[in-house]
Amino acid sequence: MRPFDGRRILLGVSGGIASYKSAWLARLLAQAGAEVDVVLTRGALEFIGAITFEALTGRPVHSDVFARGHALDHIRLPREASAIVIAPATADLMARAAHGRADDLLTACLLAAGDPRTSGKGVLFVPAMNDQMWSHPQTRANAARLREIGYMLLDPEEGMLAAGEGSGPGRMPEPATIFAHVGRLLEPQGELARRRVVVTAGGTREAIDPVRFLSNRSTGKMGVAIAAAAWRRGADVILIAGPVEVDIPAGVSHVAVESTEQMAAAVLHHLSSADALIMAAAPADYTSAVRIDEKMKRTTSSLQLDLAPTTDILRDTVSARRNGAVIVGFALETNDVLSEGRRKRASKDLDLIVVNDAREAGAGFGTDTNRVTLIARDGSEESLPLMQKTELADIILDRVEARLGAA
Ligand SMILES: Cc1cc2nc3c(=O)[nH]c(=O)nc-3n(C[C@H](O)[C@H](O)[C@H](O)COP(=O)(O)O)c2cc1C
Domain with 25 in it: what CATH number? Predict the structure, then answer.
């Protein structure tokens, strides 16, 4: 099962220098299982050929509102689409859409898709243009109007513009980022929509001297999967992460930390506004008791390291929790796994604890899979089979949504 199986996406491409990137977007969408109907403006046809999109999507490409035998394409295409994405959206296309024009197939489709506030069909504009065009008051006003109508707009990124044009805001985000936003557009919006979710991920590092540290084998995969899934469900996500070995997902606000103390401070800072806190990080439990400012020299004699416990983030931030916030912890154990999980859940006053056995194959650090037991506040225990961390992320968020809904 691919994420967009059974979904039809209308991909509108207008005529800008970034049009070539939309071929890659079409490919990503098709590979994810979507049926992609591409609509090219006259401008887009100056930049990229229809045949490229036909080959990538395996479907006919549309560009003419008056094409013989296709009289009702402007009604049918938006009706059959689960979502509409316009990438790139030129300044001119934005102006036409903001003023309700329907003088080409793409703008006619936009109107025929109906009122975006009631149609249940998300529409995403991805503007891309020269920085002066983007900052022009006309374009700003058109962008504001499009948002007011209920369309989503992805702000262009800063970066290199067309050849010889230097850099500035106007660049189209990379296809993978747009793809992630399409995932959010397609996701049914439940209890997490517009909620603030704080997720921690990865291990922390405790300095021994300026070049060495204590840490653990956490890669951040579980926490990052949860952050990505929460954002897709419409949440406003803050990901507080130690060094991780996976990419930070699109859309989340990333707070990079190194030590357990820094992670605790960041959690404390964001907790008072959080509807949910999901502590999937593996903060180091011990830190060096003495501060060593210079690199320790190698010697032939043995060495004793004096360690002190770090702060217990979940326990020490209990008083900063917002009333009704859902708090989820993780426990990675190697023995007495379940009884340790039960003890930790109670001692840290958690709504849910996700317990796993570090010694079990396919579970714990580094793997793409996990096998866990969920222990809830009411004492119920749910033993889940081995599954992808991305699947587990959704199950954990289902439980979080159920608690938020019940509150
Ligand atoms: C080389 C070249 C690059 C262009 N790049 C952009 C661009 O990145 N963004 C934009 O809004 N317009 C750009 N334009 C202008 C549009 O192509 C022009 O406004 C056109 O009418 C847009 O048509 P459409 O919106 O129907 O696709 C560019 C024009 C040329 C000749």
Answer: 3.40.50.1950
CA pair distance 164, 171, nearest whole angstrom: 14
Answer yes or no: are the C-beta atoms of 388 and 368 closer than 8 Å: yes
Same domain membership, residue 235 and residue 117: no
- Ligand 1 atom nearest the C-alpha of 91 is 11
pLDDT in tens, 371-400: 999 999 999 999 999 999 999 999 999 999
Instruction: Tell me if residue 216 is catalytic.
Output: yes
What is the pLDDT averaged over residues 355-373? Answer: 84
The domain containing residue 348 runs over which residues? 196-406
User: Among residues 216, 323, 356, 370, which one is catalytic?
Assistant: 216
| SS3 labels along 210-278 | CCCEECCCCCCHHHHHHHHHHHHCCCEEEEEECCCCCCCCCCCEEEECCCHHHHHHHHHHHHCCCCEEE
Atom 20, ligand 1: which residue's CA is nearest? 43
Radius of gyration of the chain (CA): 25
Whether 166 has a pLDDT exceeding 70, the answer reads: yes
- Residues with CB under 6 Å of ligand 1 are 14-18, 41-44, 90-93, 128-129, 133
Q: Residue 262: what pLDDT?
A: 98
Query: Higher-confidence residue: 362 or 41?
Result: 41
Residue nearest to atom 19 of ligand 1 (CA): 92
What is the residue with the minimal CA distance to atom 4 of ligand 1?
16
- The whole-angstrom separation of Cα 226 and Cα 220 is 10
Are residues 205 and 101 both part of a single domain?
A: no
Q: Respond yes or no on whether the N-terminal peptide bond of residue 156 is cis (omega within 30° of 0).
A: no
